[in-house]
Amino acid sequence: MKKVLLSAITASLLLSTAGIAKEQAGKNATVKEVNKIAISNAKEDARSHETKLVKEAIESLKFAQNAVIALEHKDKKAATENLEKAIGKLEVIMAAKNAPKLLPINNVIRVQEFVGTAKDVEKSVKMVKDLLDAGKVQEARALIAPLASEIDITVVNLPLASYPDALKLAASYVHDGKLEKAKEVLYIALSTFTEVTEVVPIPLLESADLIAAASRVAKEDKTKALKYLEAASDALDVAEKLGYVSESTTTYKMLHDQIKAVEKEIKGKNKAEKLFEELAAKLKEFKSKIVSSGKSR
């Protein structure tokens, strides 16, 4: 199955800032509590923005599968009827204005959280390198697996560009009495799904919520605000060490520098509102352009 990235529009929904999250950390919340709320909100956002499944596409699949069963029993009439129904369902979609190229038939949400610091990541990476140098590939593989901290939202789709034509070709073969040929075409058609996966790095979500929490308490509790910002910077380190790359012109270094600027302002005159807004905007844009890790599923 082919894996591609979701559009920037979907990304903006899933990588929303803490300002529109369902739950906000209280002013006395610990760093751990802020992070827990950030992950909880991200999971909720992922579920609420799940791609709406196309009913006709799912029904078309069922009829196509019934056609395969009919062909297995050499039942030409049943195969023809099911293929006609399968094609009919797709024609409803194709007749619609701005018909999609991909028809969603399933959603899968997967969460993997790395519990540790950037130094923990560095230690694990060094151990992996040492094991590989020693030829201990399987041991290294076991250590690599936990080196991810992300929410993956995968949408399984039927490709509208090829699937309908495949059904029509199968129907043509059935009409000509070439049942084995029809079956082969259907087997291929029913295996050519496209997986579209959005990767949402958890450390970046935590960093965004920690920055938002710091902005809320900066005026009344400098110590707490600085603690949140320190944790936000640590979360960025974890994301970077885990290899999450963004196509943004903003870099991890720029984000760290901006956090330092906010910290300096809080320690001084404490007029950091504008700096907080700029930092939050840069992090939001940075997250929206995160590149897929390219892992197979």
List the topology elements.
Elements: E1 2-4, H1 8-14, H2 31-48, H3 55-72, H4 76-94, E2 102-112, H5 118-133, H6 137-144, E3 150-159, H7 163-175, H8 179-189, E4 194-201, H9 202-217, H10 222-241, H11 252-267, H12 273-288
Parallel strand pairs: 1-4
Antiparallel strand pairs: 2-3, 3-4
Helix pairs in contact: 2-9, 3-4, 3-8, 4-7, 5-6, 5-10, 7-8, 9-10, 9-12, 10-11, 11-12
How would you explain this protein's 3D organization?
By secondary structure, the protein is of the alpha+beta class. Among the domains are: 55-109 and 151-198, Up-down Bundle (Four Helix Bundle (Hemerythrin (Met), subunit A)), CATH 1.20.120.1940; 115-144. It contains twelve helices and four strands, in the order βααααβααβααβαααα. It has a four-stranded mixed β-sheet. Helix 5 packs parallel to helix 10. The radius of gyration is 25 Å and the shape is elongated. It starts with a strand and ends in a 9-residue tail after the last helix. 32% of the residues are buried.
Concise description?
With 297 residues, the protein is α+β, with helices and mostly antiparallel strands. It has helices spanning 8-14, 31-48, 55-72, 76-94, 118-133, 137-144, 163-175, 179-189, 202-217, 222-241, 252-267, 273-288, and strands at residues 2-4, 102-112, 150-159, 194-201.
The CATH topology name of the domain at 55-109 and 151-198 reads Four Helix Bundle (Hemerythrin (Met), subunit A)
Describe the global form: elongated
Q: Helical percent range?
A: 55-70%
The proportion of strand residues reads: 5-15%
Name the CATH class of the domain at 55-109 and 151-198: Mainly Alpha
Give the biggest sheet.
4 strands, mixed
Strands of the widest sheet, in order across it, are: 1-4-3-2
Q: Which sequence of SSEs, written as H and E, runs from N to C?
A: EHHHHEHHEHHEHHHH
- Computed CA radius of gyration, to the nearest angstrom: 25 Å
pLDDT averaged over residues = 85
Number of strands: 4
Residue stretches low in confidence (pLDDT < 50, at least 5 long) are 1-21, 293-297
